[in-house]
Write a structure and sequence with these properties.
Length: 323
């Protein structure tokens, strides 16, 4: 049986870089298509929404609403399977779709190793608990890689790209790290490896060589060839980035091996004005409208056309939520 590798990380922690580099190896492939960005399947988060898991299991203590509805989540999953595992017939029962569909997706990879990364998952225990359930029952060899990054690097990157407030965003980083520590304790021995973004960019050949050996494949010199060292210094050089980490965030980062020097912000808040990170409300409003309404509607139509050609029935006989 082939190997499935799942990367768990926060957003803006280098997961796309990791995906690009590991997939340079001829034995590793990721999904050929996804309705989401960066070939991220979102599988376990879509599954948690579809199965209507309790609100407190989600990051903000209510069901994740990024897909708009349970029916939309199912439509996205069916569309993903139709493109990546076209021989798979989606079952009407939702739990069967979750677990059988994921198995079919993993089996669809022609390479010995199927790789998946969806940074939305780590913050949502509702998604992680379903992933753990699958690990307990699958015949695949499963390897989990936890990718962490200096919280300053994460906060600075998120602020620059999304306009998020670093003071508030650092607590979301902490929540994801708590989940990661819990996952580490719950996985079978030998199935988990934690790596730091800074170590991979500083010594890519050694770093990705270690990841390859953990997965069970021979290191390949192309892995890591596209990385570049030094991006973690950007936050130190920006005079307007003045975040002082919360003590709880520092504790967690130090547990991951970051030193006081790594975590201290050398700038004096009294000597400069803080950077104004304006949230890009219009852009993200458009993206939200697309993700919640436009794209799911188009996919529902596409799925209906596929059913019509196959002479099938209803897309979802089991889901009742159309909110």
């Amino acid at each position: 049986m082939a190997t499935v590798v799942i990367l768990l990380s926060d957003k803006r922690s280098g997961s796309t870089m990791f995906q690009n580099e590991i997939c340079r190896h001829p034995a590793v492939e990721t999904a050929a298509y996804s309705p989401h960005r960066y070939l991220e399947t979102h599988w376990w988060l879509m599954s948690a929404v579809l199965l209507d898991l309790p609100g407190p299991l989600f990051a903000v203590r209510k069901r994740y609403d990024g897909y708009g509805s349970r029916n939309n989540a199912r439509a996205l999953m069916v569309d993903l399977l139709a493109r990546c595992a076209p021989g798979f017939v989606p079952p009407a029962e939702d739990r069967a779709l979750v677990f059988e569909g994921w198995e079919a997706l993993c089996q669809s990879s022609p390479a010995p190793v199927f790789f998946e990364k969806s940074p939305q998952i780590l913050a949502q225990w509702a998604a992680l608990t379903l992933m753990l359930e699958w690990i307990e029952q699958t015949d695949f060899t499963v390897k989990i890689v936890g990718l962490v990054r200096n919280p300053h690097g994460v906060m600075y990157s998120a602020a620059r790209l999304f306009g998020t407030d670093p003071e508030t965003r650092q607590l979301a980083w902490l929540n994801g790290c708590r989940n990661l520590l819990a996952i580490e304790q719950m996985l079978p021995e030998g199935s988990y490896m934690r790596v730091r973004y800074e170590d991979l960019t500083a010594s890519p050949e050694a770093g990705f060589g270690g990841v390859a050996r953990f997965i069970g494949i021979a290191p390949d010199g192309t892995m890591g060839s596209g990385t570049r060292a030094g991006p973690e210094q950007k936050w130190k050089n920006d005079a307007g980035y003045l975040l002082e980490l919360h003590p709880a965030v520092r504790q967690m980062a130090q547990h991951f091996g970051y030193s006081g020097a790594d975590l201290d912000n050398p700038k004096d808040p009294a000597q400069g004005a803080p950077q104004a990170y304006r949230r890009r409300t219009f852009r993200f409003g458009v993206n939200r409208l697309r993700d919640r309404l436009v794209q799911p509607a188009l996919i529902q139509i596409r799925n209906a056309v596929r059913r019509g050609r196959a002479g099938g029935g209803s897309l979802n006989k089991n889901s009742e939520d159309t909110k």
